[in-house]
Amino acid sequence: MINTKGGVGKTTTAICMAELSRGRTVLVDATQDKNLKAYYQVPPKKRKHKIRENLDLISISSSPGLRSALPYPFVIIDTQPFLNELTFHIAKNSDIIIIPCIYDLWAIESAKICIEALSRYSQRICLLPTKYRWYWKKHHQRFGVMREMIGIEMLEPIPFIRSVENISFDGTISNTNILKYYRKSLEGFYETIL
To answer: Of the candidates 69, 83, 102, 119, which lies 20 to 30 Å from 111 by C-alpha distance?
Structure first.
């Protein structure tokens, strides 16, 4: 998950992808705030944690830390909201880059910057519209702007769900609606990577 704009759903998308994963998966927390560790209530000093069968969490702060994710067939990385050496290293070693993006002009511009900066590192970059409000005219217009991003695969939009904005850090996704929408958006996507 990469985007230079915060609040676009990178962490929520990483959590939902991990929850929907069908194989042995590791979530990599490469953020300064360690949001994934907070969500799963992992003690701050613990670098590796087993969340459940087939799902582990590791926390990294530099490129060499990525080596600990190598034995896993599925690696989902939550990144910081800026581009730096670690982000580029992650991009170089990723099969797929997902750019979550909300329907805000600054977020769309941030997504364009990411696409431009990262396209040389990855063959496959996907845009994932999040927090979509189907009843807002401006979201329909901005959806069109997103669609015009040439050469970028666009996943099914994730609708805005108020309870996700106030998600509690209790280690579970209690709102099954958000998982339902992510499942719908990602089911075809997962078929292409399995």
So the answer is: 69
